[in-house]
Design a protein that fits this description.
Length: 170
């Protein structure tokens, strides 16, 4: 009597996956015959076209029968609706029960760290989270120290090369 209750979207996602596995790959009719035709689908419009007329033995045409359930359309395979986020303010508008965020590719490291922190605080699923450490003052100091050391090394190298060139000329 204690059965697991699954959400209707979870069942719809399973049905969508099953429908997707049975769906054929739709290629342009007679693209296998002529190399000048690309494989990408083009709708046949000719009067005598066998695919358009759905003649037996020819490939099927795309139609709405191959679609998945209406509930599952546009959902991520995890069952969440994807929301594209560009800043922290957009994270606050997300419903954590039904929506998950995808951080836009144009967002930099600093803002990405803030968005991830805010999403974790609100318990929101992040679809493309990369583990980034927030930059601290000590890390910045070490990077500046390394930069100055490399600049000093380059200067000494240049001085040595100038000295060597002068010695060869004499």
């Amino acid at each position: 009597m204690t059965e697991k209750k699954t959400l209707p979207t979870q069942n719809a996602l399973k049905v969508r996956e099953r429908a997707k596995s049975k769906k054929p790959t739709f290629v342009r009719p007679e693209s296998w015959r002529y190399s000048k035709f690309s494989l990408s689908w083009r709708r046949p419009r000719g009067l005598d076209n066998k695919v358009r007329r759905t003649i037996k033995g020819w490939q099927p045409m795309p139609c709405y029968g191959y679609m998945g359930p209406k509930i599952a359309r546009g959902l991520h395979p995890s069952g969440y609706e994807e929301i594209l986020v560009h800043n922290v303010a957009e994270v606050n508008c997300v419903k954590p029960e039904t929506q998950a965020i995808r951080i836009a590719h144009t967002v930099g490291k600093k803002k990405r760290v803030l968005i991830i922190a805010e999403a974790r605080k609100l318990d929101i699923k992040i679809l493309n989270a990369k583990e980034l450490k927030p930059s601290t003052a000590t890390e910045e100091e070490t990077t500046t120290d390394e930069k100055t050391q490399t600049k000093d090394a380059k200067k000494t190298q240049e001085k040595k090369s100038i000295f060597r060139k002068g010695a060869k000329e004499q």
